[in-house]
Design a protein that fits this description.
The protein is of the alpha+beta class. Helix content is about 25%, strand content about 20%.
Length: about 60
Amino acid sequence: MPECHTHDYLRGGVTTLFAALNAATGEVTGLLHLQHRAVEFKNFLAKLDKEAPAISTST
């Protein structure tokens, strides 16, 4: 049965954690946000793009 909430429902201190694991090094990159929207996820992906090393596709 789906859960229902009233129009004035608040998340009550819950936060959103986005995390990624680099399997080669075991390093975890994470980011905490108060909201869970596409904007926050896009910011997380941008952070990963900046921190991740470039991968060469030439063979």
